[in-house]
Amino acid sequence: MKRIVRLTLGIALLGAGAVHAQGTLDAVQKKGFVQCGTNVGLAGFAQPDSRGAWKGLDVDVCRAIAAAVFGDATKVRYTPTTAVQRFPALQSGEVDVLSRNTTWTITRDTSLGFNFVGVNYYDGQGFMVPKKLNVKSAKQLNGATICVQPGTTTELNLSDYFRANRMTFKPVVIEKLEETLNAYYSGRCDVFTTDVSGLVSTRGSRPNPADHVILPEVISKEPLGPVVRHGDDRWFDIVKWSLYAMIEAEEMGLTSKNIDQASASKDPAVQRFIGATGDFGKMLGVDNKWAFNIIKQVGNYGESFEANLKPLGFERGINELWTKGGIMYAPPLR
Amino acid sequence: MVFVGWYFVSNTLRNLDERKIATGFAFLAREAGFEIGETSGFAYGAADTYLRALGIGLANTFRIAAVGVVLATILGTLLGLARLSRNWLIARFAAVYVEVMRNIPLLVQLFFWYTIISESLPGPKDALTPVPGLFLTNRGIAFPVLHYDPAQWWVLAALLAGAVIAWRLVRWAKRRQAATGEQFPALSVGLGITLGLSLLVLLAVPHEIDRPALSGFNFTGGAALTPEFAALLFGLVIYTAAFIAEIVRAGVLAVDRGQFEAANALGLPRRRAMRLVILPQALRVIVPPMTSQYLNLTKNSSLAVAIGYPDLVSIANTTLNQTGQAIEGILIIMLVYLTISLSISAFMNWYNRRVALKGARA
Ligand SMILES: N[C@@H](CCC(=O)N[C@@H](CS)C(=O)NCC(=O)O)C(=O)O
């Protein structure tokens, strides 16, 4: 009931129209921070560390936006959201941007009233089962009980997959990730399904990760990326290019360690990137050193991946740069 | 007021339109695309519509609320009377129960029961079988049921016929007692006739038994209570019963002591005095607050989403997330709960008028 009240309040905000009278950038500048919707806690993507500071690949996108807008990556406030809370939170204006392992789909892009700015992690949906069940393939899961979170693409892909393969299953649908995982680990479900990144990340936080296996089948495409409200192109551009600046910097070899020396570079592209020449910042409506600030304070995409995901055992895989065999690709900054 | 309302509605619609958020209820006819774990006996698949999915959620809400209200009333009444017992131990136990249960948040209790069920019971392969055919596992309680046959409707007919006979018997016994003072155990005899009749008919019609059996991951066949349903039911009943106990106790205490003494003087045993003299009077005090407990139980059943029972709110939540139509989703939830609340209130008002002092009505 409490959540319903919250939702209703959020919707009342929609009615009040105050959020929309001015652009998001103006509103953000006025209040002095970016309100970023994140995961409640998913190691490597968004999770508070022991001192309460938020860390993760998704969190770094929030920080990059703050660095671009304020020249200060710390000017972010986080709103942890479950899968079902995240969309009303963005629709109602409770958050300025959602950076929370959210899959880009046509429904969300159109009828939910959002715009996806790009992809910061290419993923797919997988299945995890206890090793002792001795299951080798998802095709053997007929009749299984499967734990899944509501309001996700996961829930829909799961039904599709079983229908397509003429199998049946019993879903156990619990809103909070923690309770879903409890249900799985206690044996209430035979299977836990979500994005493979989510499986790796949650399994890694267990005392005995080797007791659980991730099946070879990847049943969907899950391009995860930041989302903004439809209809505010200026804000859309800022969020989009904050993400692309991180990817572009990796391709250019610019890192948080060497960007201070970049002003000495003879490469005109580097000069433009750090804002020494050109006026990309002005075009976006932020400081001309926006990209420099992002890389200096947050780091490039590769650094963020290295710091947040490598320790959990993630490989770059298709999230490697296009120049190195992956599909991470930023449109040119020029 | 009207103007402010109109302003909000039109402004909301304009904002929704500007952001290209879909509006309207057309989505209800679209394919839902998600499965639902339990469906209260109705057919449902991912290819069905959102409307049907919401209907299943509503059926699940009704099922938990109906069973919950009945059980909470029984348990609550017993506890309320126990608290008034002259046996110190029973009275203390009831008092402690009420104090403890009322003060632990319901959500905590739900998680407690859910964890107990899913952590302490074994997996399907090592199911507990306290009686043959009954299986206790962390997937729930599987038990045998009758294999459905249309002829079994005759059993229901027999049950109804038995009830009518029993009712007439009770009336006859009352009249006889009034005239001659002789007593007749009409209720037990009536019950016996009803059960006997139904059993006879049941044996006459096809009555194959469908037993649960382990196949693959889970039990199939028979019927099952899921851990989600069981945990939600335990939580709601145990929590609400504590409040009902207090209402019952207050109701009994509100009856003038003189009534007890008068019943005593007439030589009525304590139990019959309670049933014939005290409770009918106490009901007048009990019914109004009981209504709000029934409403609370029904509303509290929406905590289901926390432990994965697919009630209306849980399905509506999924729906509004998949379609993005939060306003419509919330409207549906509010409308349904409003209807349920008003119906329960109306029924209890009617009942209250029936038990009220006749003189007070004129
Ligand atoms: N990418 C999918 C699924 C995202 C998702 O919600 N994943 C779950 C499982 S890893 C999660 O992050 N849950 C965290 C929570 O709800 O607190 C989507 O966008 O629908």
Could you characterize the architecture of this molecule?
The complex is a heterodimer of chains A (about 325) and B (about 350). Chain A has 14 helices and 14 strands. Chain A has helices spanning about 1-15, 20, 25-30, 55-70, 85-90, 105-110, 155-165, 175-185, 195-205, 235-250, 270-275, 280-285, 290-295, 300-310, and strands at about 35-40, 45-50, 55, 75-80, 95-100, 115, 120-125, 125-130, 145-150, 170-175, 190-195, 210-215, 220-225, 225-230. Chain A has a five-stranded mixed beta sheet, sandwiched between helices. In chain A, strands 4-1-5 form a three-stranded parallel beta sheet. The longest helix of chain A has 20 residues, at about 235-250. Chain A starts with a helix and ends in a 26-residue tail after the last helix. Chain B is mainly alpha-helical and about 350 residues long. Chain B has a single domain (about 1-145, about 210-355), classed as MetI-like fold, CATH 1.10.3720. Chain B is built from 13 helices and seven strands. In chain B, a hairpin with a 2-residue loop joins strand 1 and strand 2. The two termini of chain B are about 40 Å apart. The model of chain B has no long low-confidence stretch (mean pLDDT about 90). At the A-B interface, helix 1, helix 5, helix 7, strand 10 and helix 8 of A face helix 1, helix 4, helix 10, helix 11 and helix 12 of B. The complex binds glutathione (GSH). Glutathione binds near residues 83, 149, 153, 198 and 222 of chain A.
- The order of strands across the largest sheet of chain A is 10-9-11-8-12
Number of domain modules of chain B: 1
* Order of H and E elements of chain A: HHHEEEHEHEHEEEEHEHEHEEEHHHHH
The count of β-strands of chain A is 14
Largest sheet of chain A, in brief, is:
5 strands, mixed
Topology at a glance:
The complex is a heterodimer of chains A (334) and B (362).
Chain A: H1 2-16, H2 18-21, H3 24-31, E1 34-39, E2 47-48, E3 54-55, H4 57-70, E4 76-81, H5 83-91, E5 97-98, H6 106-109, E6 114-116, E7 121-123, E8 125-130, E9 144-148, H7 153-164, E10 169-173, H8 177-185, E11 191-195, H9 196-204, E12 212-214, E13 222-224, E14 227-229, H10 233-252, H11 268-273, H12 280-284, H13 290-297, H14 301-308
Helix pairs in contact in A: 1-5, 4-10, 4-13, 10-13
Chain B: H1 2-18, H2 50-83, H3 88-103, H4 106-120, E1 135-137, E2 140-143, E3 145-146, H5 153-180, H6 186-204, E4 209-210, E5 213-215, E6 218-220, E7 223-225, H7 227-254, H8 257-265, H9 270-300, H10 304-307, H11 312-323, H12 326-355, H13 358-361
Helix pairs in contact in B: 2-3, 2-7, 2-11, 3-7, 4-7, 5-6, 7-9, 8-9, 9-12, 11-12
